[in-house]
Design a protein that fits this description.
Elements: H1 6-24, H2 27-33, H3 38-65, H4 68-88, H5 92-120, H6 126-155, H7 157-175, H8 188-195, H9 198-228, H10 233-259, H11 266-281, H12 288-316, H13 322-351, H14 355-381
Length: 389
């Protein structure tokens, strides 16, 4: 990595997560004030993910074949326009169209910035290097909702979208400072061969399960905190801030752990088990303090699972085709997010805001436990491919 200093990627990731969560944390509450039903809210939030199913995979392949930097710049522009549209639109279908555009932009930034970063770094200490990028993301994840909550409380919803639009213009400028990666000769056969590996298929399944819990949270967590726990908007922002800072503290240690020898998939599955257990316990929180304790333990699992999924992506796929293959994994995750966000909207309207956490917690825990048993049995008979690092 020469012209693109890691700090540029760090700032890009920070601003992306800050603006993304500054708006998304309060979008269900904002849509509620527009008169949208819980089902419509769940559908609209899910569209943020669904849009990437159609365009992020082609964007990723295009970035491998043509130019990651230029593709990333185009995605950043889409992301910027999304916030601009949200300032003015209040009709359900026009909001859905804006969210679709935002989903394309957001997913492009998330996928291509990570794949470009992985292409430009070397293999030495990869866990720590990926953790450094995630550190910027978690700081943005924590700061965005806190800032958004204060703005929403003091100046209304429009101020949140306006600041997000201004900051997203900085993201566009940062993409212009990045180093580009050389293109590759396009071949569907090579991508197909990459995906057919058993470890890759297993990773795809785990990424899908990881995505379902994001879908439950994105459509429900803010409504749960406001309607069930009774938190004010500033307190909702405080919860996100504490969790973001907490995850930023954890991720460097998780990165060091990733670089030590261990069996692949173990930390990812351990993370899912921790995360799902405390997903299930979330509805039992009745105070701000209790909610924070439960969600902090929950995000310990998230930190392990998210970080190792990115590290394994770099380990399993050739660097030259990381854009397309990362796009595929992101499509799988976003399909899960859309499906469970829409399903959670129906659960919220029918059974209340606690139900998605119960249902998703049980589902992810059961699958992760079965997967951990499968990995353990495999290890007893033969080491997994590339099983230690």
């Amino acid at each position: 990595m020469t012209r693109s200093k890691p700090i540029v990627f760090f700032l890009l990731y920070f601003l992306y997560f800050l603006t993304f969560w500054m708006v998304l944390a309060y979008l269900p509450l904002i849509l509620k004030t527009y008169g949208f039903t819980d089902q419509k809210i769940g559908f609209a939030i899910g569209l943020n993910s669904l849009s990437s199913l159609f365009l992020v995979l082609p964007f990723g392949v295009f970035s491998d074949y043509f130019s990651p930097k230029k593709t990333l710049n185009l995605g950043a522009i889409c992301f910027c326009v999304y916030f601009l549209l949200l300032i003015f639109l209040k009709d359900f279908w026009t909001v859905c169209a804006a969210v679709l555009l935002g989903g394309v932009g957001a997913a492009s930034i998330r996928v291509i910035s990570m794949s470009l970063y992985l292409k430009l770094i070397d293999d030495t200490g990869r866990g720590k290097k990926v953790a450094f990028l995630h550190l910027g993301g978690y700081l943005g994840f924590g700061s965005g909702p806190l800032l958004g909550g204060y703005l929403y409380e003091a100046f209304g919803a429009t101020s949140v979208m306006t600041l997000a639009f201004v900051l997203s213009m900085l993201i566009v400028l940062l993409t212009l400072l990045l180093e580009d990666a050389p293109p590759v000769v396009f071949s569907f056969k090579d991508y197909r061969k990459d995906v057919k590996k058993p470890d890759v298929l297993f990773l795809i399944a785990l990424v899908f399960i990881l995505g379902t819990h994001f879908g439950a949270e994105q459509s429900t967590i803010s409504l749960f905190m406001k309607e069930v726990v009774g938190l004010q908007k500033k307190e909702i922002g405080l919860v996100f801030f504490v969790l973001g800072i907490w995850m930023s503290i954890l991720v460097p240690f998780a990165g060091i752990l990733m670089d030590r020898k261990h069996r692949i998939f173990f930390l990812l599955l351990l993370g899912l088990i921790i995360s799902s257990s405390f997903q299930f316990l979330t509805p039992f929180a009745t105070t701000l303090g209790g909610l924070l304790v439960i969600r902090m333990i929950h995000t310990m699992g998230d930190t392990l699972a998210i970080l190792e999924s990115d590290v394994l992506t770099a380990q399993f796929f050739p660097a030259a085709r990381l854009g397309g293959n990362s796009g595929l994994l992101f499509c799988v995750r976003t399909l899960a997010i859309f499906a469970f966000a829409a399903f959670s909207g129906w659960l919220n309207q029918t059974w209340g805001y606690k139900t998605p956490f119960f249902v998703n917690g049980i589902m992810v825990f059961g699958f992760s436990l079965a997967a951990l048993f499968y990995v353990w049995r495999r290890l007893r008979h033969a080491p997994l491919h590339a099983g230690s690092r």
